[in-house]
Amino acid sequence: MIKIVVDIQGADSAAPTLIDGVINALEKNAELFVYLCGDKAELEAELSGKRYDTERLQIIDAPQVITNDEKPLAAVMAKKNSSLVKGLELCKSKSDVGAFVTCGATGAMFVAAMMLLEKIVKSPALLCALKKPNGAQFCIVDCGANVDCRPERTEDFARIGVAYMKTVGVQLPRIALLSNGAEDAKGNKFTKQAHDILRASDLNFIGNIEGSDVLSGNADVIVSEGFGGNVLLKTIEGSAKAVVSELKESIKAKMGDYSELDEIVDAVYREYDYTTQGGAMLLGFKTPIVKGHGAATAETVYNIIDIAYSLANNGVMEKIQNEF
Amino acid sequence: MIKIVVDIQGADSAAPTLIDGVINALEKNAELFVYLCGDKAELEAELSGKRYDTERLQIIDAPQVITNDEKPLAAVMAKKNSSLVKGLELCKSKSDVGAFVTCGATGAMFVAAMMLLEKIVKSPALLCALKKPNGAQFCIVDCGANVDCRPERTEDFARIGVAYMKTVGVQLPRIALLSNGAEDAKGNKFTKQAHDILRASDLNFIGNIEGSDVLSGNADVIVSEGFGGNVLLKTIEGSAKAVVSELKESIKAKMGDYSELDEIVDAVYREYDYTTQGGAMLLGFKTPIVKGHGAATAETVYNIIDIAYSLANNGVMEKIQNEF
């Protein structure tokens, strides 16, 4: 049995509207057990009319909610009965929990994890997994957890990325460093130092990569400090959205309504939308954390539980430990 | 008459194949005069069969070429007869030159400009102009000329951006700072300081912007140090390309060849392709410089001459001086 702790609160949508995501995940994975953290009365009321394997779902009563508007540290300190804090405490106390899933506030998640979970690497990092047009999966580390780190940390980010790629079946991931030019000498002070460190390591480092080549090149792990990685990730998302919306308008203007085409366009867009893909992970703590977007739907919750299940099932933590 | 110096060498394509871009620009703008810098014999041979107003084109013999593979400083020092160096010397010696255009190496262009041209601001910056899906133009400053600058420089970048937007008719441009979150407190040390500086200035500063909102938000000038700006710019380009190529494949697979659709998709893509749009400018020297992509075609050369003409015609240098 793979046990996952799910923090169902803190997203834009109310917890009950997200519950079908949990039920569908239980339906898909017969070996999944969920600790569902939220307002017990509310969740029980919603669950009472649903069909699911009651043996594999346990509600943890944690009615307090931490929102995006609160100061992370103060909120985590004050709200001991929040689904975030109680969920992470469960991860800490139970050694057999395989992963933690949340759609709540990113800052609070990071602060609470730092306070409650044991670190297995020096700088846990936010990793986002995406797909290239050719269908190949790749990841970006760090996507925003470490915005003022030292160049040495990029080696840790690379190792976390390698461990993740191994869980999805890529045995010798190619690592590239995000820079403002592909040549070795290109970059700011940070990337020039990081380049030398990665080059001197035993990693499969293939050099610098520009933003324009991330989706078309052959790198499996894009390494960056958190600021650049965040710009990269969000710009991919925003650009895909802009191009798709303009295309739909343009097709409509020139060819009229054409629902078949809209479906094709939407399908392509979804592949670049990390909010529905849900592949944002905070890795480097004893428990891997999968972070859904605040605008999560039941489908997002289903996806992130599925990703968390797969991470735990493929031993991502052992793989990270092996890389260090 | 608007006089533009054109460095026709240093692009991936040979100079003669690009010459139609110059001729078409002369054809379009009756008030355009071009100093064409390159190998005189080669250019004369190519031009001999063409129809154009010979009164408005003068060849400057500068047969040496500086390539992307050379060390910028050494190449600029050694190649006094290069089209880049001779072209910039012409800008320096003739007070009535309105702009300089090149498709050559970026590094050499920057070094040569620093050596040969008078600066009118402390840190000249690379500005790229793009369009949003709604057709509105916006710009990103700096896109890579200043990768390790101080936060104070972002105010200069903003003023350069404001001056540029005024040349395209936006009277009160809205300025946003690229960051890893929209909230005021988000960012790394650099952006937090830059945020405070921009907030305290008399600029029309609307706050931080994430990569996901650049194409959909209402900012006219995106300000960043050169590293983040470069990641942003190139990721927009690469993502648009990836989404479009995947869409074309997907449409083909599901609906068969459909040339009408391909044309629509291509037209949308071109709007995100700053290499064909050609809107990269190095601003802050006495002469504005428009930089075409190394993979320039005759169409690119036409576009960048047209942009240079428009910059000179709209007094971009006076507008920059007015902002400082």
> How many E-type strands of chain A?
11
**Helix and strand string of chain A, N-terminal first?**
EHEHEHHEHEEHEHEEHHHEEHH
Q: Name the chain pair with the biggest interface and residue counts per chain.
A: A-B, 56 and 56 residues
Our estimate of the beta-strand percent of chain A is 15-25%
By oligomeric state, this entry counts as: homodimer
Shape of chain A: globular
What Rg of chain A do the Cα atoms give? 20 Å
- Helix and strand content put the structural class of chain A at alpha/beta
CA distance, first residue to last residue of chain A: 27 Å
Number of helices of chain A: 12
In words, what does this structure look like?
The structure is a homodimer of 324-residue chains. The relative contact order of chain A is 0.17. The first copy, chain A, is globular and about 60 Å long. In chain A, 46% of the residues lie in helices and 17% in strands. Chain A contains twelve helices and eleven strands. Chain A has an eleven-stranded mixed beta sheet with strand order 3-2-1-4-11-10-5-6-9-7-8, sandwiched between helices. The mean pLDDT of chain A is 92. Chain A has 324 residues and is of the alpha/beta class. The two termini of chain A are 27 Å apart. The interface between A and B is large, with 56 and 56 residues.
